[in-house]
Write a structure and sequence with these properties.
Strand content: 25-35%
Radius of gyration: 19 Å
Oligomer: single chain
Number of strands: 18
Distance between the termini: 25 Å
Low-confidence stretches: 1-50
Mean pLDDT: 85
Strand order of the largest sheet: 1-2-17-18-16-13-10-11-12
Structural class: alpha/beta
Order of helices and strands: EHEEEEHEEEEHEHEHEHEEEHEHEE
């Protein structure tokens, strides 16, 4: 996958996020009907903090320098690329399957003719809202629930979920590639914390590169899917802790224990409800989450990465929050948007850029 940084930026957020990875390897018999699996937003609804247990720290010192706006761009990777987009939809290639999903930010007309869009294996129908449910239509033949994919050398399973997601968020590869590079060149085993880790692709990428990984998600289905992905790639011996717990509860406890991490990835939802009725609102609770993450960064930390999906906000909102959170820590905060560029039928013909999410990343230099 190609990735590059550009300065001029615009766009809004869309989509979901999580980790990307390609699915299953083949060994399972196909099922005639796709079963609903935990969607990104379903996972997020469970993964909410239980309570605000401490006030924000008072920070002093200079704010980190800034690099804005940064556009991190992907042009396909592994078994994935964005073929075309338009009329509120996107046409994607996931391994052997060509699929259509809703995409509110595709305001333009498709570049490719209708007959290309008609030759697809799966189409998501129903509620087009990120948190809404729907179903898949299979124009050619009924497909199995899961199929194998690969990204950054990691095997994983794709699934047709009832929330339109397939278990991988390919725009995240720009963060995962950065993380993989940091782990490989560190000269020591880095400790990575993956909050709201979803199906575990990022965790497997980090562990395969040599990191010791703690993966946290409140959804049992997501954790189960992540373990399937680990088994699929024969990566059971890699040092990964799979933690099924509320993310905020976990990091507050880690702070009390004095635990530390070299890289933290956090991808919180905009809204969620916890198993005991707790409510998470991104704009209310994100400051504390970042504040706690700062406290559990190690003295030789390599980075803190925040991604935000499906929110109506400028990237400057999370950018300035990150700079305030990291006041006195030095380094640089770089923020902007993640975009995926259309790659055509051949996966190489560059087209328009589709914005997917906002991000902010602190690095020590």
């Amino acid at each position: 996958m190609k990735q590059r940084e550009r300065r001029p930026g615009q766009k809004k957020t869309s989509g979901s996020s999580g980790e990307s990875r390609r699915d299953d390897r083949a060994s399972r018999p196909p099922k005639p009907v796709a079963q609903p699996a935990a969607s990104r937003e379903t996972v997020r609804e469970a993964a909410v903090p239980a309570a605000i247990e401490r006030p924000l720290m008072t920070r002093s010192g200079e704010r980190p320098t800034e690099r804005v706006p940064i556009i991190l761009e992907s042009l396909g990777a592994g078994d994935f690329h964005l073929i075309d987009s338009g009329n509120g939809e996107k046409l994607e290639q996931y391994g052997p399957y060509r699929i259509i999903r809703p995409e509110a930010q595709a305001l333009w007309r498709p570049s490719l003719p209708p007959h290309v869009w008609e030759k697809v294996d799966a189409v998501f129908t129903g509620d087009t809202d990120e948190e809404g449910t729907g179903r898949w239509r299979f124009p050619k033949e009924a497909l199995g629930e899961a199929w194998p994919l690969n990204l950054l050398g990691v095997d994983f399973l794709g699934r047709f979920t009832s929330f339109r997601h397939v278990g991988v968020f390919p725009e995240q590869i720009v963060h995962w590639s950065w993380m993989k590079d940091q782990v490989e060149k560190a000269g020591r085993p880095l400790k990575v914390l993956n909050l709201f880790g979803y199906t575990g692709v990022a965790s497997l990428v980090a562990a395969a590169a040599g990191a010791e990984v703690t993966h946290v998600d409140a959804s049992k289905k997501a954790i189960g899917w992540a373990r399937e992905n680990q088994a699929l790639g024969r990566m059971e011996k890699l040092p990964i802790r799979w933690i099924c717990e509320d993310a905020m509860k976990f990091i507050l406890r880690e702070e009390r224990r004095g635990s530390q991490y070299d890289i933290i990835l956090t991808d919180p939802p905009k809204f969620g409800r916890g198993p005991n009725g707790e409510v998470w609102h991104l704009f209310e609770h994100l400051p504390l989450m970042l504040d706690v993450c700062r406290e559990i960064l190690s003295p030789k930390a390599v980075g803190l990465v925040l991604t935000a999906y499906s929110i109506r906000a400028s990237f400057y909102s999370i950018h300035e929050l990150m700079r305030e959170t990291m006041r006195g820590a030095g380094g640089v905060v770089e923020s902007g948007e993640l975009v995926i560029r259309e790659a055509g039928l051949d996966g190489k013909t560059q087209g328009r850029a589709l914005s997917t999410s906002l991000f902010s990343r602190w690095v020590p230099k």
